[in-house]
Amino acid sequence: MSGFVSATAALVADDRAAPARRPVRTKHIASATAAWERGLAGGPDSRLWLERAARLAPDDPRVRLDLARLHLAAGEAARAAIGFAAIAAQHDAAAAWLGLAMARDRLGDAPGAAAALGVLLARHCLPAGAGFAWIVRRLAARAGYGGFCGVLADGAPIIQGAGRLLGAPPDPAALARVTGIVAASGTGLTGWASRPAAPDAPPALTLSDAVGRTRAVALAKFLPPDAHAPFLRRYTFTIAAGKLRGLTPPFTLRGPDGAPLPGSPLDPADFAGARAVPAARRGAAPSVTPPARGLAIIVPVFRGFVQTKACLQSLLGVAGADRVIVVDDATPDAALAAHLDELAAQGRIILRRHLANRGFCHAVNTGLQAAGAGDVLLLNSDTIVPPGAIRALRRVAYARPDTGTVTPFSNEGAILSYPQAQGGNPMPDAAGAAALQALAARANEGRSIEIPTGIGFCLYIRHDCLAATGALRAGMFAQGYGEENDFCLRARQLGFAHRAALGAYVAHAGGVSFGADAPPLLARNLAVLERLYPGYHALVQRFIRAGRLAPARARMDARRLLAAPGAERVLLITHSHGGGVARQVAAAAAAHRSQGRQALVLTTGCPGDPKTTPYPWPSRLVDPGDAASCANLTFTLPRDITSLLRLLRRLQIARVERHHTLGHHPAVHDIAAGLNVPQHIILHDYGSFCPRLNLLTGTSPARYCGEPDAAHCAACCAADPAGVFEVLAAPALRARSAAALAQAAAVIVPSEDAARRITRNFPGITPRVTPWEDDGAPRRLRPPRQAHRRIVVIGGIGMAKGFGVLRACGRDAAARGLDLTFIVAGSTADDARLLRTGRIMITGAYGEAEAESLTTSLDGDLAFFPSIWPETWCFTLGTAWRAGLYTAAFDIGAPAERIRATGRGFLLPPRLPAARINDALLRWTPNAAEKLITISI
Fold it and tell me: Among candidates 904, 889, 885, 882, which has minimal Cα distance to 936?
């Protein structure tokens, strides 16, 4: 790894946060930074700590870069290549391109290595070190190149070799590019700048005024890493008002490439003199709807040839527009410019072209000048407008006298996103957009609601609103973002309202025009909006919390479900807490689909904060095979039980499978009866007679209660209500469950142990035992080592799963200096408390698909299941066996039953002291299994 480190040391700044350079403070021991620090310190568990850091901070590519480096050093070139490629594609980081080249080289992919190295050489300034040149020459030669070429940070060229050179030709725009932001600060300017091609070199900035006078800009210290630019050093600058005297605004900051720094040109006086107006303020509304006028569609264009071509193609085939005005904002894409010229020559568009890039706001204003006095539709060039959308927008625009702007639903439409309300939905193609437009029209034809602001990706502006409000304020919002919100807030002060056309849909890619400059520009302009209109953010958040768009989204979801082809439909009722229940529900749904049935799931709307959200929670109907198709079918019970049953009847639900009702209103217990269909009850725990679900006492420490009668159960819950999930008292709970179990078409449990407990508490009920997994499949288990042992604990370890036991074992191992380390493959109720024992490591939460590979990678000797409740199954037990580990557990519940049946481990008496547990974990061998098997509870 040393060669790689030396080669990349000069390619990327070491921007790790300061706490990772100091001894980790105790209270931060469970943080991602602490895990990152431990991973970088080296040692046999470096990978574990770096992987933990990556799980705790999945969006930090710096951690993932170090992890990819570790994989490369460990000889895992394929895995390293995947990591480097992802970082390179997302962040264009030089170190990632070099790492990718080296990983591909080790995989024997010389052309692939050269391709990655070629990007680095063409787009990034190179270090002058001999070590880097040696690596590049070697990789270039393997791919058949005669040498390589590149550019140093000071602009000096590097050419080594002759003939075909890797890295030729260089990309001058990328090498000179400067990114950053400039904003007004009082009557001065402030901001930051960075040069992506040479992040360690402060970029040269020049300030110019309106008449061409220039001054150099001094750069100061650099800011901490930014989430959107984690590999760049952002050098700050401040230009006081005094430094601007004698210059004529507006002011523009430029880098060596001559391009304006995002946020400029600007005049600080515009901001200093702007009067703040509360966002909620509105003027007197117009009382008369004006006569309708023609419509001009304005499409500003800069980059994105494929997206722009698709957008214009969708527009030119749609009725409703008199003119399509395209404003070419000096696109650098020759093919895009030629395509626009061709459309203009054919008379299909009106083309306006800027000689220099001026930004979205200026482009829109150029289009407005060409549009004249009619209605306009401002449209991003990365949209697709399906048939019917413009007609729906126009209908809403003239339905009320006070309407100023109208916006449709979209996959990426801010507050108007669908189906996922928070956005992030994949963009459909033209056919998909047409289908969604037809869906919106069927569900919400002619309907609209007022929204706090229109959304600029597709904004229909009625002519009287435009005439009264005026053009966009480019001086305030520079290249763009927030300018349409400013327009809408100004229109609001004049009495105009902004409406969502609920029967309209337009597809939107998002992020095509601004690219990497988008995040700082967006942050800057949102701050400007809040300064100009105090309370703007709160106004939008109140609208979102009110959920006024939810009914429209739900109507669309319902129609999607009803239109879905399928034969018999089955309803699965469950909770939203994940775990083994979620895994089994997913398996059941998949099994139904394989047999030609459609499985729908009624789960709970997972609250943002369960502690403050009123309980029970709303119920949500989803299709697990296509979760996005019905993300908004939420029912607050018992208020909406009639609506829910009506929809389920229309869906012709043939059977109900009740897996879990945690979090639901009790009304869900009556759904099968309300539909008059059979119900199968699948029991995953003991919520049918234990209000705590798991048969544990509320005492500290908790312990197995022994399953007393209802009176004792009620007393236990009354003495300590913490952890009680059932609203019914124990006697009423048992009575309700007895009736439901007796009426069920089937009662299913996964283990004989669970079946015995159910029968004991509900005489006359004989559950059907259906194991969730096949324990009969052969497994090859490796014996534990005789020296230091690594004990793996798999899953989410809360109190019921043995958090207290595990902590006591870790503390005992440390106190006695035992050759014993515990590794939690997963997460815990309190990572910090366990880590402080010094004998417990924690990987962090994992995805279901990686459970087995993660467990295998931990190089464990045994798997320990410290769960203190009689589990009905335990999926992680199967994970341990598939990973080749013998297992240890307390002699209680299904895990004990399964270990005893297979002989793949040993059992411990419940409530065994930590010291005795550790002794057993250290000395047990497969040959000694019979000595440690205990009598089952």
Answer: 889
